[in-house]
């Protein structure tokens, strides 16, 4: 509602930046130009729904490639290219 969401990261939706059972605050107010490698983002994916993953690569056209650092998670090829408009939040705080 206010552009902020709090997600508890655990098990299969946990990434390398977060510790076990840690909360992450996502904000939808961010500049796409300021996205960087290893940022944790919230994405509305056509096949997988809402996913939380790290940015692994940003190409010269601004297309974002995501990957999960866990062995059982989605890899870059499964996720495919992510258009900037598909990114609906960026992690801004961990606790």
Written description of the protein model:
- This protein has 95 residues and is mainly beta.
- The protein has one domain (4-94): Umud Fragment, subunit A (Ribbon).
- 4% of the residues lie in helices and 44% in strands.
- It has one helix and seven strands, in the order βββββαββ.
- The protein has a seven-stranded antiparallel beta sheet with strand order 1-2-7-3-4-5-6.
- It is globular, with a radius of gyration of 12 Å.
- The two termini are 21 Å apart.
- The mean pLDDT is 82.
Annotate the secondary structure layout.
Elements: E1 4-9, E2 22-27, E3 40-45, E4 49-58, E5 64-67, H1 76-79, E6 81-82, E7 87-94
Structural class by sheet pairing and helices: mainly beta
Q: Uncertain spans, ≥5 residues at pLDDT below 50?
A: none
Adjacency order of strands in the biggest sheet? 1-2-7-3-4-5-6
Largest sheet: 7 strands, antiparallel
Helix content: under 10%
What portion of residues belong to β-strands? Answer: 35-45%
Name the CATH homologous superfamily: Umud Fragment, subunit A
CATH T-level topology = Umud Fragment, subunit A
Radius of gyration: 12 Å
Which CATH class? Answer: Mainly Beta
Let me know the number of strands.
Answer: 7
Q: Do you know the CATH architecture? A: Ribbon
Task: Describe the global form.
Answer: globular
Task: Please count the helical segments.
Answer: 1
Distance between the amino and carboxyl termini:
21 Å
Number of domain units: 1
| SSE order, one letter for each helix or strand | EEEEEHEE
- pLDDT averaged residue by residue: 82
């Amino acid at each position: 509602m206010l552009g902020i969401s709090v997600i508890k990261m655990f098990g299969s939706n946990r990434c390398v930046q977060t510790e076990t059972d840690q909360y992450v605050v996502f904000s939808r107010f961010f500049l796409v130009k300021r996205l960087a490698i290893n940022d944790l983002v919230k994405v509305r994916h056509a096949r997988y729904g809402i996913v939380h993953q790290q940015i692994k690569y940003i190409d010269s056209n601004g297309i974002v490639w995501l990957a999960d650092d866990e062995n059982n998670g989605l890899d870059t090829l499964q996720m495919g290219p992510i258009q900037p408009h598909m990114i609906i939040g960026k992690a801004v705080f961990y606790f």
